[in-house]
Amino acid sequence: MDHFRYVHDRAIARYPSKRVFIVGGSDDTVIEFEDKIHAILNHSAIDDLMDLLLVQPDAARHRVDLFTNGFTPDSELIRLDSYNLRSNWHLATPGVNLFPNKRANLRERYVRLSIFNYQPYTVWREVETTQEANSYLEHRPTIHIDGTESQLFIEFCASRNCRLEMSLDDVGEWGQIYDNRTGDGILGAVVERRSDIGVGALYSWHHEFGFLSLSKPISRTGVTCIVPKPLPLSSWMTPILPFSPFLWLAVIATFVIATIFEFLVSFVAHKINGKQNTGHVDVCEAVMVTMAIFILQTVLLRINKTPIVSQMLLIGSLLMVGLMIGNAYSGGLASVMTVPRFEKSIDTVQDLADHNLHWASTHDAWIFSIQLATQPTIVKLLQNFGTYPKDVLHEHAKKRDMGYSIERLPYGHYAIGEYITDSVSGNFEIMLEDIYWEACVAMATKTWPLMNELDELTLLIFQSGIQKYWESEVNGHLLRPPCHRPPAAVFPTWVSVVSSVGARA
């Protein structure tokens, strides 16, 4: 028994419903047998073994008595049945259950649960009266817990008649597990067996799977970011915005080529006509003529009485090109002046990486799921991630120079850190795309005997859809509406004729 937990903690297989046979010596008296059994039942490993069959051979009476244990080490043994060796092992009581179901009624046994305050998953507060309390701290009913995942364990103890003994660690939050099987936070409390099970937006992490036992998925969550809202572009950029950078390059190239050809054709015409010309060819005049045509202004063309065909073709071509470019620019300018233009928003994971925006939170748990990723985009995001105290994160939120990781809940709400207050929430918007998604689970010791029962209740609650009600309830009376509810829909407004006329004016 001394090596029971040591061996199981290092095993890959997990089987919580173990059945253990303990056989006494054939020469032991009843008192000796009970003394040995009680010594075994006082061992700490017995807390993880609920299906025990205690066998007491009695050679003198050619009989084998079968017992099981109670729920406390000091409780009396429960006789299940007796086998008579002379009657060919026929049961004295046919149909007796040698392994009665002790999990249906846990008789107010304590289940040690580890959580921290992380809305809306797990929320706790101290209360003054026992009527308000629904869980225990140091065996005293002084804690009230709530949250979408805490409700699962409230229902579990209500259906199994057990008590929740809380292990609280708001400083360590999710925590971490070290290779020597120590840790802090929720994960450290479970791996060190200071609690039986932990919950609070724990994902199916690869590293933690080697140390703990994971439950069936409780819910699905998406990890995304809130990023600074794009600001309106400066007013001095209004004349530039009608065309894209690539189109502006095309317009400039066309202007330069048209100016060169205008100068060359005018120069050749001047040489051909000879004395009929009274003026001279000027580069500045060619530039001004081409510019006037491009902005749909009237121009004075010096054409001789005997114009050259190439000169007429060039001027006609310039007029057509200028007409198209001028009208396209006028339409684009009207659009820009009617509908405000903003900086490029960060909507996708690729946008977040391309902007090289640093994003942060209070704990590295946000990147546990993607630490082994090899995609260049995710690798860049990992390089830009940082952890800071809440006060530092709040100061950066005022400066709008950082993104913050949040969780997209299954039914339309969001889990946002306390450092994003109402005063700074207006500076940010939610990305449209998730960085990744995960399955939220509970993590228990590898020998916790109630995992199958918890999984059964988890799947039953999941298929019932009651989690949608829980999420709405928690967000309704616990969370700050501006930060944790989805942003209100923004609908386009009708553009009137007056707006278009004003834009052209």
Automatic annotation (TrEMBL):
**SUPFAM superfamilies per UniProt:** Periplasmic binding protein-like II
Q: Predominant location of this chain?
A: membrane
Q: Which GO terms describe its biological process?
A: detection of stimulus involved in sensory perception
Location(s) in or outside the cell: Cell membrane
Does the entry feature the keyword Repeat, yes or no? no
InterPro entries annotated for this entry? Insect_Ionotropic_Sensory_Rcpt, Iontro_rcpt_C
Query: What's the protein called, per UniProt?
Result: Ionotropic glutamate receptor C-terminal domain-containing protein
